[in-house]
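Whether sequence alone determines local backbone shape is best considered at the level of individual chains. When preparing material for the folding task, we compiled for one chain both its residues and its backbone structure tokens. The sequence in question and its structure tokens are set out directly beneath this paragraph.
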Amino acid sequence: MLKATTASIANDVPLAQLCKALGNPVRIAILRYVLEHPDCIGNQILLHLPDDGPHAQSTLSQHLRQLRDVHLLESYSDGAAVCYRVNSERLAWLRNELGGLSK
């Protein structure tokens, strides 16, 4: 039986935070869209969200902030527009960590 230590639990905090951020299907849809459309702007994302209900700009901003907070998305300004792209290093880290769960 594997006993969790304080150190091992502390090491798992970033993974847990990332998984929590992905715990909403709209945020997964945003991530998928940005993966397919790097350097897109928020309005483009908003137009391509699932049709399961109204999505306000303020709600989109909250979702984008949560994905940026865990470093899955990066943003930058291009004039008045804010552009988004996936942090490929962070996504690779996530794949590696999740793969490690199957060992």
